[in-house]
């Protein structure tokens, strides 16, 4: 990734980390009008950054979180004692004669800070597999897939616009948002040869469709009563969970 693309990903990650705090803090200081203003500004900034990544830098299907969390075990350097053991040529594993089980030899046991509980071969294979996955370029998107990803990126803005037009009690914003999400996933489902991270992102988006059951006005009219009834049944008839459910 180029340096400007990394900066865009960094700013996008920062926005996603602070957006809830900014919304709550603004609502506390400037009230409901300030809260909706900061929501619109943050969603607009996120959409612009994501569209730049999609259309200018060809970033493909964008992940959440934008920057992959650091794998500290993979990045951990070897300690001097471990480097000595590796350079001395000692066998790192021992294969049992009858069980054929591979275990670490006592001579090559690493220091406590860098010790792990798998065989060296397993760790090397997992590290090489992770590195290969991280270095895979994004799958090129055609016109249909680019349109689908653009729908997913702009959906929060269209949802906010529909809320401003029809109000928070109307079904139209809820339906519009759901249609955009489902349409985006349907168009992206035709894409083949996705890498592992992209497939995981599409699965995450599919699971997030369940949140529509907890969004107003569907939640207010249908889900709330059923969920509260279930929680009351659990509190009354299942020992040990009443404190939590109440």
TrEMBL record:
Where in or outside the cell it occurs: the entry states:
Peroxisome membrane
**What InterPro entries would the database entry show?**
Pex16
Asked if the keyword DNA-binding belongs to this entry, the reply reads no
The biased composition feature labelled Basic and acidic residues covers 122-133
Q: Quick check: keyword tRNA-binding in the entry? A: no
Q: Which Pfam families does this one have?
A: Pex16
Q: Where is the composition biased (Polar residues)?
A: 74-91, 106-116
Q: Which UniProt keywords apply?
A: Peroxisome, Peroxisome biogenesis
Instruction: Please list which residues make up the signal peptide.
Output: none
Quote a single Gene Ontology cellular component term: peroxisomal membrane
Query: What does the record list as GO biological process?
Result: peroxisome organization
UniProt-annotated stretches for the region Disordered: 74-140
PANTHER family cross-referenced by the UniProt entry: PEROXISOMAL MEMBRANE PROTEIN PEX16
Record's family?
Belongs to the peroxin-16 family.
Protein name, per record? Peroxisomal membrane protein PEX16
Organism annotation: Xiphorhynchus elegans
């Amino acid at each position: 990734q180029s340096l400007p693309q990394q900066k865009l990903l960094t700013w996008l990650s920062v926005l996603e980390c602070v957006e809830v705090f900014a919304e709550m803090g603004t609502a506390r200081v400037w009230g409901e009008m300030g809260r909706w203003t900061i929501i619109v500004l943050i969603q607009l900034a996120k959409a612009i950054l994501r569209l730049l990544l999609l259309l200018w830098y060809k970033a493909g299907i964008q992940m959440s979180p934008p920057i992959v969390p650091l794998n500290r075990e993979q990045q951990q350097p070897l300690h001097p004692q471990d480097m000595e053991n590796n350079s001395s040529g000692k066998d790192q594993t021992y294969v049992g004669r009858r069980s054929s089980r591979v275990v670490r030899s006592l001579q090559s046991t690493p220091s406590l800070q860098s010790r792990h509980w798998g065989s060296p071969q397993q760790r090397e294979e997992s590290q090489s597999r992770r590195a290969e996955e991280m270095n895979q370029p994004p799958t090129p998107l055609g016109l249909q897939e680019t349109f689908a990803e653009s729908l997913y990126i702009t959906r929060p803005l269209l949802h906010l616009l529909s809320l401003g037009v029809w109000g928070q009690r109307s079904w139209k914003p809820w339906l519009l948002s759901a249609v955009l999400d489902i349409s985006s996933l349907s168009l992206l489902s035709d894409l083949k040869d996705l890498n592992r991270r992209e497939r995981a992102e599409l699965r995450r988006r599919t699971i997030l469709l369940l949140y529509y059951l907890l969004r107003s006005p569907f939640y207010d009219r249908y889900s709330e009563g059923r969920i509260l009834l279930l929680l009351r049944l659990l509190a009354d008839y299942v020992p040990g969970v009443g404190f939590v459910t109440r």
